[in-house]
C-alpha cells in the first residue's frame, strides 16, 4: 500500500511512502502520520492521496506510525486544502499544519495530546455585593472584579491574566464568593439549554432575506447581505443557522477578530448553548484543542471562529457566514497567505452550503461579484425599529488652524469638546476613536532635527508617556524616553497624537468622567479586551477611547456620541485600498452611535473634508463611494478588474536586492505582454526586525497568467542568489 504524504515543512510537493501491513488498516485520507524525512527519522506528515504506482527512480521509505485514532481532516477538507495550496502558492504541508489546533500541529511526529478535564471559576450569585468587604485584599478584589465582568471562565484563562493569583482564587472560594468545578467540555448536539435566548421578531427586510436564504437550502448559493449598521444582520444569521440545525446540519461563522466581538459569540452561545464551539487565539491551547475535537466528533455542530476556523471540521455543513466580510483580518499576512473569505466561497461550493457574506460596507470585490450575478444581493436598508442613522458632522481641522485655533489638547476641537460635555451631562456614553497608539507618534531634536527611529526597522519610534518609553510598533523594541538628544544634547519634542494623549485630554476636559482606553497597549489578551468592553457595557465607564478595536461589532445602547479624532490616518498610505479602508472604518465606527432608544451623532475631525472617502461616509452613501472607487479601479486595472500577485523578499541589504533583481529577470520572459510587473523596489517600510525588504508586484486580467509567472519565479526561489527568503502572496491585501 502506498500513500501520498504532505510533510509539515516548508517544502513544495508531496512524497510517496510505503505503508507497512501492520499499519494498513489504520491509514485513511486526511490521517496524520509520522514519517522519515531527509535526515530526520520522524517528521509529521498528512495523507493526501493513494498512488497506484511508486515514482520511478526512487527508493521508498516506510510510514513509521499513525498518530491519531481518526483522521483530523475530512475528505472535503483535504480537497479544500489541496485547492488552497495550488491557488495560494504555498507548501502543502505548511498549510495543512496551519489548519490544525495546538497539540495537533507539531512538526516532529508527536502524537495527539490527551484530552483532560478543564477547571472553571465563576462568581457566586451575590458576589458583587461583597466587593467592599474584601478590604485590603487587593488580589482577591481584582480577580473577583475580573470574574464579574467575564462570568464563568476556565481557570487557565485566569492564570494567564493573574499568574500569581491562585492563592487569592482559593481564598475567594473559601469565602463562598467564587465557585470552582472541573468538567470535560462535552455537549450533546441539538439540545438547547432552557435559558436559550428566543429569536427576535424580524423586520420585513430581514424576513425577505431569510426567505431567500431558506429557498437555497441544500445547494450552493452565495449571498451578499448588505445591511446598514444596526439593521439586524446577526439575527438573520442566527435564524438561518437555527433552521439548518433543525434539519440536523451544521454551520460555520467567521468573524474578523473574536476577541473584539464578545457580544457576537455571546449571542450565539445564548441561542444555541453548548452546540457552539469557539475557535480563536484567546483560548488556551488545551481549550482550542478540546473545542476542535468537539466539532470533529460531531458533539458541537456550530463553529464561531476567526480566520483559521475556515478549516474547522464542522460536520454536514449547511450554512457558512462571513461577518464583516470586508475586514482585512480575514487575510493571513504571516505564514500561508490565504484569504478566509475567499476560501469560504470555495468551501461552501464544495459542500453544497449556503454562504452569507455580511457587511455594512462590502468590499468592492464582493460588490462586483454581486453585480455580475455570481452572488445574490440581499438588502437591509434601515435600522431595527426604524431608528435613524446617526447625524454626522465634519470638523475641518485645516480651517481651525487658519482661524488661529492652535494647541488643541489631544487634537480635540472645540466642537468635539462641547459635544462630549453635553453627552455626559445627559447621562449618556461616548466613544472617541483614533487609529494611532501611544502618546506622540514622533520625537525630534529641536537643535539637529534627529528623529527617534528604530535601528532595526525603517520607522519612527512612538512615545508612550505612561511607561516613559519609546516603542517600535513593528518589532516591539523599547528604549527609555530621554528629554535630550543622544547625538547633540539638544532638547527633544514630540509631535503627532496617539490614544494615550487623547485619553489624557478627555480626562482633563471631563475630570469627573470615568474614562477607559482600549488599544494594544492596555490590553494584551482576549480576556483583557472583554473585561474593558464588559465594563463599558455595564455603563461603569462614560467614555471609551480607542483604536479600531472599538469599531468592530460592538452594540452599546448607551452610546449617543462617536468622535473621530483624525479621519485621515490611512488616506496617505501607498496602497490602492487606502480610500476604501478609510470609508469602511469611518462607517463602522459611526455605526456604534444611536443603537439604543436615543438618537446618535458623530463628529469627524479631518484635514480633508472634501475627499470622497470622508465626505460620503458622512452622508452614509456607500453606493456613491463604491461607484466612484470602482471607476478608478477599472481605469488602473486594480481588483476587482484585475488580479495581483506579490513576491516579497527579506534578507540582508545586498541579498534582498540581488534576489529581487533575479526574480525580475526570471519573470520578464513570462510576462508575455499581458502581465504588468511593478518593481523590483524596496518595500514601503524598507526594513523590519533588521531585515531589508523588497517587493515585486504583478497584475494580470486573470490568475492563470500569474501562475505562469510564478512558475518562472519558483526556479529562482529554490536557490535565491542572495540567500534571501521569498514569500509569494496571491491576491495581496497589504501593499506595505
From TrEMBL:
Binds 2 zinc ions per subunit. It is an enzyme of class 5 (isomerase). Zn(2+) 1 binds at residues 445, 448, 485, 488. SUPFAM superfamilies: P-loop containing nucleoside triphosphate hydrolases. It catalyses: Couples ATP hydrolysis with the unwinding of duplex DNA by translocating in the 3'-5' direction; ATP + H2O = ADP + phosphate + H(+). Component of the replication restart primosome. This is Replication restart protein PriA. It comes from Anaeromyxobacter dehalogenans (strain ATCC BAA-258 / DSM 21875 / 2CP-1).
